[in-house]
Amino acid sequence: MDFDLSVVWDALPSLWKGTLVTIKITFWGLFGGALLGALAGVIRTYVPGWFSIDIIRQRPLSGILLPLVSMLAQGYILIVRGTPIVVQVMFIYFALPLMVDVRVDGMSAAIATLIINSGAYIAEIVRGALQSVPKGLFEAGQSMGLPFYKILLRIIGPIAFRRMIPALGNQCIISLKDSSLFIVIGVAELTRQGQEIMASNFRAVEIWGAVAVIYLILTGLIALILKTMERRMRIL
User: What is the pTM of this model?
Assistant: First the structure.
């Protein structure tokens, strides 16, 4: 079978529309996931669990509330990492409206799913990076009288962020590729557009080849941006 480049050229407008949708889903999904993951990661690292007897004795109210918050964060990460993203988006798109009587459109369901899914993995990345920072830095901040949030933002955070860049880059690429799974709820992202074009002209080699190249370009750009960021933030 001959490869016809004109087929790809004719399909580019539709593929470009799908690419923009994919970029939109990935951007907002990772943006929200980073915020959610950072919060869950900090909770998993610094908020004591049920077995922290000292805080229960010193502050009974905090000894109940803080372990509860820690348990919720652990449960969220466990559930999300233990279920496929396809099941998650199907639940949000089909089951959630039946439970709360609110209609959820495909784009909102896709973005919400990616936020929830990437947030769980980013939380573990954040936790690992925070735990890798020497405890002496945290103690030094405390000895200077700095509140917890300033220690986290000015001392621990910058060092931990440098260390989590490679893992974050990997998660960004995974989330970008996971957006193709939202084809199951009819979101007109890149893979969906490729499927519809191929169904009309039956030129699978040209269309899926073009889709693959576009994904390679997008993932390559993410890798390049994060590699540049990592190089600029490297400590000599």
Answer: 0.89
Quickly tell me which residue has 């905090």 as its tokens: 62
Q: Is the pLDDT of residue 162 over 50?
A: yes
The answer to whether 194 touches 208, Cβ cutoff 8 Å, is: yes
Helix 5-46, helix 106-132: angle, nearest 10: 50
Q: Please report, for residues 27, 107, 213, 235, the alpha-carbon distance to residue 191 in angstroms, rounded to integers and kept in the order given.
A: 17, 14, 12, 40
Contact 125, 79 (CB under 8 A): no
Residue 69 burial (10 A CB sphere; 0-12, 13-18, 19+)? middle
Alpha-carbon Rg of the chain, whole angstroms? 22
Looking from the CA of 87 toward its CB, the CA atoms found within 13 Å total 6
pLDDT digits (tens, 9 = 90+) for 182-224: 999 989 899 999 999 988 888 888 899 999 999 999 999 999 9
Number of C-beta neighbours around residue 128 at 10 A: 16
CATH T-level topology, domain 5-232: MetI-like fold (1.10.3720)
Which one, of 80, 72, 92, lies nearest residue 120 by Cα? Answer: 80
Pick from 173, 230, 227, 225: which is nearest to 29 by CA?
173
AA identity, residue 158: P
32: closest CA among 124, 110, 84, 85? Answer: 110
pLDDT of residue 50: 55
Q: How far apart are the first and last CA of the chain?
A: 54
Residue of 39, 14, 30, 3 lying closest to 170 (CA atoms): 30
